[in-house]
Amino acid sequence: MFTTYQEALDWIHGRLRLGIKPGLKRMEWMMDKLGHPEIKVKAIHIGGTNGKGSTVTFLRSILQTAGYTVGTFTSPYIEQFNERISINGKPISDREILELTNVIVPLAEELEKTELGGPTEFEVITAMAFYYFAEMINVDIVLYEVGLGGRFDSTNVVKPLASIITNIGLDHTNILGCTYEEIAYEKAGIIKERTPIFTAVKHPGALKVIEEQAEKRNAPIFRLDHEFFITEHESLMKGEAFTLKVGEHHFKKLEISLMGRHQTENASLAVAASLYLDRQGLTITKESIRIGLQQGYWPGRFEILSENPLVIIDGAHNDEGVTALVQELSKRYADRHIHIVFAALRDKSYSKMIAKLDGIADQITFVSFDYPRAATAEELLAQSKSENKCAASNWQTYLLEEIPTLKENSMMVITGSLYFISQVKPILIKYLKNITVSL
Length: 439
Hints:
The chain contains 15 helices and 17 strands. The protein is α/β, with parallel strands linked by helices.
């Protein structure tokens, strides 16, 4: 048994050596040993390629504004590991992480001796989340974010009140399939029998797959542009405004602080799901929805860390994410000299991402970071056709040297893997705070 938080964290991260092992048998084994915590709490299950975290944030904020205690399970973390398991947006304590790890360690050791093999890092953390919300804390509802895919994801042992699929993109193609339809089939694996599914998927082929899976499971389906509609979208200085129609409900000029049209789609999913929950016994007013959306905040998504100098971080870790980032930069900062710093995982299809970033960047720098699957700066550099490109051997040294040189009409955008963003953000926040004070 561990006696310190750091020992527990080292053991959890040590499970990374097992990589990704899709399948539910190890989770089902652990859930049985723990007394099935996955069915003891009300839950919403959120999957999709991009927008899962933002949708979780909007829905949590709405429910919290309505007076409910909301648990969330998300990945990866941006500022600290503990935020993956949170209550009302507040990460659980180091002591609780230690206690949870000591609950799971004996199970992991026992499971290791079976034909199933030991649980992965993500399976361990998922099991911890299920146990925590069911046995250690009182919550009204829990929002579980899918880690990878859906059908064989560790979270898919949950029996939710409703499921949400944000969108479909060509990500993790080595595991989920190479077409939108194949990936949609994996994502649609979270649809449960007679359990409503809310989706903002637009790709015709992908949406058809989801509709077919919903029909097969007798699951009512609610689709953006079919059962709920966004109109009158307007980009604000720091956020978006839009009108939303959901059935007989009509919301004029809802506002969110997250930037990008795609965030209005994530917000619309949260509103549609919250209205469904209101019909299931929770009390959620229109005012709770309006205020909850305004207050929703999710780190690392087109987040302005500093306005002078202008520094933005964005976890655009796949083609769809980079497309959204490029659109926002083109719309909001066409008059700026844009310096992009990019890092990615080796198992991502990063050539398309780099091509799009090349198109918007006046200067682009590639870096690597401390993570087992990280691509090297040189691997990324080789894919770029920019005339003003370079590779930096140490991202931290590079950023701290380059940021002070940014001119008034310049900006730096640090983007790529969310694992990279999680390492960058705490260091830059501290650094930018100090240089802002000295200006």
